[in-house]
Amino acid sequence: IFQPQDQIEVGEDGFKQWDVLDSLDMEAMVSTVRAWIENPVKFARSHGVNVTPGSKEPASKDIHILVIEGFLLYNYKPLIDLFDIRYYLAVPYDECKRRRSTRNYTVPDPPGLFDGHVWPMYLKHRKEMEDSGVDVVYLDGLKSRDELYNQVFEDIQNKLLNCL
Fold first, then answer.
1. Whole-prediction pTM
2. What per-residue string of b and e applies to 9-30 under the rule 16 or more CB within 10 Å gives b?
3. Which of 42, 104, 136, 152 could join 88 via S-S bond, C-beta 3.0 to 4.6 A?
4. By three-state DSSP, how is residue 121 classified?
């Protein structure tokens, strides 16, 4: 959930600072996640998702899983505390740069953005996350999507089995 574009500052590196916490409305994200935790069915319906209950509502024992994907998720403590399992997709520099260069944006990246801003911010925020001791499961970003999906799916299944 980004702040309005006119509120995004230009940093010393000359680039708009999209890759910093101040560019995101983290309080809105926390509120959104809390609303889902409080009542996943109501939340889904309020966002246009039709949910068919597996048993009587509202005392339903159905299992609901929320997957949140994004950057800087583990650099904001109020959000970190809401997650049961945390995954961090680690991608080496060369592969990350290759993937970034193949993406199509409405406004293309200016020359030098990746090396001058994106990668340094990735390293900075990863170090902050690691230094703060956030408990994450590292995923190898060089694995296929299927391999990553299967690893995460198996972890979630095991977590659910251990909770029953």
1. 0.83
2. eeeeeebbbbbbeebbebeebb
3. 136
4. helix
